[in-house]
Amino acid sequence: MNKIHIITPVKDSIDTTLQTIQAVMGSQLSVAHTYTVYNDFSTPENTARLQAASAEMGFRLVNLSDLTTHPSPNYLLVLQRSQQEALAEGAGLCIVESDVTVRPDTLQGLVDGATSHAQCGIAASVTVDAEGKINYPYLYARGQEGQVVDTRRHCSFCCSLLTPALLQAFDFKKLNPEKNWFDVTISHESLQAGLHNYLFASLPVLHRPHQSRPWKQLKYTNPLKYYWKKFTKGLDKI
C-alpha cells in the first residue's frame, strides 16, 4: 500500500470536528496520503469555519451541497466518490469520523498492520472513552486490550482503513441506497470476498459517539424513544 486517501464526513458538531481534523493533520505518516473533509450540509456558520480551517491547515474541503441536493446524511455518495478516487491511484481508503480523535501513530499503525496481515480487507482501530476504556461500538472487544483481533463481527468506520484489495473486490455502487450507514454491509462483503477484518485493540482512538447527530444519544439515555424515532421516522438505517 503506497498511498492512502483519508476522509472525514462532517455534519456540524464543529468543535469536535476541528479536533478530529487537527489530530489527522498531525499524524506521523511515512506513506503518501491525501486528506479530504466532506461537509454534509453543515450550517452556513459551520461551513465558513471549515473553509477557514481548510485555508489555514491545508486539507481539501468538499461541500456536498455543490454535488447533490439530497439531504444529509450522504454517506453513500461520500463512499462511492472516495472509492473511485482511491482506486484510480491504487490507494487504501481510511475513514476517520468527526467524533474521533486519532493519536499521532494511529494511521501509520493501521497501514503497517494491514500490510503485515495476510488478506486484510479492513484494519480498524478500537474506540475508547476519555478514561481509556473500550466503548461503543466495540464493547465486545473488552478484555482484548492491546491485541489484534481477526474478527467476523462488523468493523465500524469510526477509524478504519479499507485496503485496495477490498476496494477492488466490492463495488460501492452495489450498496443499498435506502440505507444511511454501510459499515455492517461492507464488513460482511469483505468477508464474503475471502478477506479478513482486523480490529486493532493496540491502536485505540478517542470516540465521542454521535456528536453530529445528538438525537442518537437517546440510544443510551432513552432506548425506547431512540427506537421509536428510528422506526417511525425511518432514521439511522444500517
List the SSEs and their pairings.
Elements: E1 3-10, H1 14-25, E2 32-39, H2 44-57, E3 60-63, H3 75-89, E4 92-96, E5 100-101, H4 106-116, E6 120-128, E7 148-151, E8 159-162, H5 164-169, H6 183-192, E9 196-207, H7 218-221, H8 223-232
Parallel strand pairs: 1-2, 1-4, 2-3, 6-9
Antiparallel strand pairs: 4-8, 5-9, 6-8, 7-9
Helix pairs in contact: 1-2
Overall pLDDT metric: 91
Count of beta strands: 9
Uncertain stretches: none
Count of DSSP H/I helices: 8
Compute the gyration radius: what is it?
Answer: 17 Å
User: SSE order, as H and E?
Assistant: EHEHEHEEHEEEHHEHH
The biggest sheet, with number of strands, parallel, antiparallel or mixed sense and barrel status, is:
9 strands, mixed
Shape type: globular
State the end-to-end distance: 29 Å
Q: Would you tell me the structural class of the helices and strands? A: alpha/beta
Give the amount of beta strand, in percent: 15-25%
- Determine the fraction of residues in helical runs and give it as a percent range: 25-40%
Quick summary:
This protein has helices at 14-25, 44-57, 75-89, 106-116, 164-169, 183-192, 218-221, 223-232; strands at residues 3-10, 32-39, 60-63, 92-96, 100-101, 120-128, 148-151, 159-162, 196-207.
